[in-house]
Amino acid sequence: MDLFQTFFNLDVLVRTFPMLIEGLWLTLQLGVSSIIAGLILGLVLCMIRLYSPAVVRVLARIYIDVFRSIPLLVLLIIVYYALPFVGIRLSPFASAMTALTLVSGAYTAEIFRAGIEAIPKGQFEASAALGLSHRQTMLDVILPQSIRMVIPPLTNNSINVVKDTALASVVAMPDLLKQATQAQALAANPSPLIGAAAIYLAFLLPAVLLVTRLERRFNRGNA
Amino acid sequence: MSGYVSIRNLRKSFGTFEALRGIDLDIGRGEVVCVIGPSGSGKSTLIRCINRLEPFSDESEIRVDDIPVIPGRSLAKVRAEVGMVFQAFNLFPHLTVRENVMLAPRRVRGTSRADAYRQAEMLLARVGIREQADKYPSGLSGGQQQRVAIARALAMEPQVMLFDEPTSALDPEMVGEVLDVMKDLAGTGVTMIVVTHEMGFARQVADRVIFMDSGEVIEAGPPDEIFANPKEARTQNFLKAVLHH
């Protein structure tokens, strides 16, 4: 019973719930804006990586590989604590969003590339033979077909971005985790942490199950 | 005098393999030409150069209606005038049959939706698949898909139609329906260049038959001459192999 009072203290949970909800709101804002910015960055990077002059293509490739290798926490600390030395001072939210977007963009670029390279060459040839420009070919023929294929891995990446928002608490952003640790300190009880974990799960577990379902559906190979 | 499609010194290599070793060819407006020859002879590569799906070197020259087939604006012009039908159909699987036919006129020519729709109805009726207009390509047989591909190419109102082994991927019972559509088309005055293994079609429909081997044009002439009295030994051997098996 003591254990229950320690970790699932209802009284403490109710008292600190508003703090957690505030944190959740910020976490969702950070997650969604980073996912969207990462998608745009990833699409642009992917186009550069596939269809630009060789020199620029190499740069895109280096970017993608570097940002897939660097630990997100290290990048976040650099953005928040190191950039001010060169005069770039970002808020905790902006720092976290920058770091998340830079990394998510690199992963997204690779996901889009795989989606585009999976489209048969004949689709490009038929488009070219009809006189479609490269842009039209991409927008009307290739990307609509790629989207279906990339939805499961993109959802997966989005889950990772939302999970990684928790790192923002180290740069003092009052996200869900930061709020929970503060509530824990105030109440001298760890129940808010358990509450935060439950809230993360409530959002992300359904998303994980969705990916599994999507993958199964797309793998069944309905053309 | 040069032809409507004129090809000069066309050379193309894949690595060290010479696929085309200097082709010179003139094709007149409205002419129906069948290109025959063993596989690997370069016939597909030849017609894929005409709309530059295969890049070729600067020493070679191709012109369509006197427009040089070189990258940039003039290539866009040429591609709008030259339709192509592929062995593997290459229909757009995410679009319905009608949308497949409407896409290029809408995007490249800027045709209005209503006009493109009407034109698609007309073309799909012409190739005999109007009832399937709202289906997706995967719901059609191979023969039907290839007829849609022909309608899609015709929607750009091309002056020249290229056919790259259009019946080679079809089940035997579907070859006829596609050849029939092509025969009708040959009567409309559009210039046709057809790479094919269908000797009956070549004999019946072509104005001129071109026999290729090892990246060269070995012999060319009216079908009666080529099929009845081939002059070159390589032509004779090829025809003997494909006609009496």
UniProtKB/TrEMBL annotation, chain A:
Gene3D superfamilies, alphabetized: MetI-like
Protein's recorded name: Glutamate/aspartate import permease protein GltK
Subcellular location: Cell inner membrane; Cell membrane
Tagged with keyword Calcium: no
Membrane topology: Multi-pass membrane protein
Subunit and partners: The complex is composed of two ATP-binding proteins (GltL), two transmembrane proteins (GltJ and GltK) and a solute-binding protein (GltI).
Function comment: Part of the ABC transporter complex GltIJKL involved in glutamate and aspartate uptake. Probably responsible for the translocation of the substrate across the membrane.
GO annotation, biological process: amino acid transport
Membrane spanning residue stretches: 24-50, 62-83, 193-212
Entries under PROSITE patterns matching the protein: ABC_TM1
Record has Membrane as a keyword: yes
Source organism: Roseivivax halodurans JCM 10272
UniProt keyword terms in alphabetical order: Amino-acid transport, Cell membrane, Membrane, Transmembrane, Transmembrane helix, Transport
Pfam families: BPD_transp_1 (PF00528)
UniProt feature coiled coil, ranges: none
UniProt similarity note: Belongs to the binding-protein-dependent transport system permease family. HisMQ subfamily.
UniProt xrefs under PANTHER family: GLUTAMATE_ASPARTATE IMPORT PERMEASE PROTEIN GLTK, MEMBRANE COMPONENT OF AMINO ACID ABC TRANSPORTER
Domain ABC transmembrane type-1: 24-212
Lineage, uppermost ranks: Bacteria, Pseudomonadati, Pseudomonadota, Alphaproteobacteria, Rhodobacterales
Automatic annotation (TrEMBL), chain B:
Pfam family, one: ABC_tran
Compartments, record wording: Cell membrane
Signal peptide: none
Keywords associated with the record: Amino-acid transport, ATP-binding, Cell membrane, Membrane, Nucleotide-binding, Transport
Residues of the ABC transporter domain: 5-239
Gene Ontology CC, one term: plasma membrane
KW Nucleotide-binding (keyword) present: yes
GO terms, molecular function: ABC-type amino acid transporter activity; ATP binding; ATP hydrolysis activity
Main location: membrane
Top-level taxon in the UniProt lineage: Bacteria
Protein name: Arginine ABC transporter ATP-binding protein
Species this chain originates from: Roseivivax halodurans JCM 10272
Name of the gene this protein is made from: artP
